[in-house]
Amino acid sequence: MAQKVGILMMSDALDKAVAACCMAVTARSMGHEVCIYFTWWGLNVIKKNGPPLKKKTLLQKMLAFMNRGGARNLPLSKMHMLGMGPFMMNMMFKESSMPDLPGWIKLCRETGVKFIACTTCTGAMGVSKEELISDIDIYGSPVVFLNELRDGGIVMTF
Amino acid sequence: MEKIKPDEVLDCLGLFCPIPILKTAAKLKEMKGGKVLEVLTSDSEVEINMPAFCQSSGDEFLGFESLSSEKYRVWVRRRTREKLT
């Protein structure tokens, strides 16, 4: 039975992002329709690795400085250890032939997982479309995400 | 157990779940309905994971065999009719 699966990506932790993408790709391979809604810190997952700092207010500039995004720059939610944690985690992924986060995102794109970027947050936090990876399916507010799941389905939050 | 003759074999040895499942799903997509795929894997829980996958995907889980403590094989028959997605 094909269902709708909605994943709400709130966090920008490497571990949570990998788990979310892993869930998404697996659900897709089982025949479900999957969308991931990136909001708040979750937007960092779909930021380019070196975002430009342009046309921002002072507060937005400060936020962008402290809140650097990009799939290669995300912290771990536990045992970050000034960056040693993610480095070691990526080595472990490699050793066990598991994809790293950019690999999982690529798999999501290939298998047809729909990416929705929250325009409410991009607007308020001053994140421009150019700062996000180029192949976002929909830029939308919560309405879009809820509409995707209007007939019911599975919702997961990360 | 009756010998199952696979039409194709997929080697997923050394990979952790869900990667063998993802590879199986991709391989099954290429195969015609009714064809049988044999999957070799190191995932000791494949006996639980693969039927769970099949329950959702609509393919048929045919059986499981343990070859050693790190080598297992399962057989899956590709579903015959395309299900509505």
What does this protein structure show overall?
The complex is a heterodimer of chains A (158) and B (85). Chain A has 158 residues and is an alpha/beta fold. Chain A has helices spanning 14-29, 58-66, 84-95, 101-111, 119-125, 142-148, and strands at 4-9, 33-38, 114-118, 138-140, 154-157. In chain A, strands 4-3-2-1-5 form a five-stranded parallel beta sheet, sandwiched between helices. In chain A, α1 (14-29) links the parallel β1 and β2 (33-38). In chain A, α1 packs parallel to α4 (101-111). Chain B has a four-stranded mixed beta sheet with strand order 1-2-4-3, with helices on one face. Chain B is globular, with a radius of gyration of 12 Å. Chains A and B meet through α1 of A and α1 and α2 of B.
Please provide the count of β strands of chain A: 5
Low-confidence stretches of chain A: none
Largest sheet of chain B: 4 strands, mixed
Q: Any idea what the CATH superfamily of chain A is called?
A: DsrEFH-like
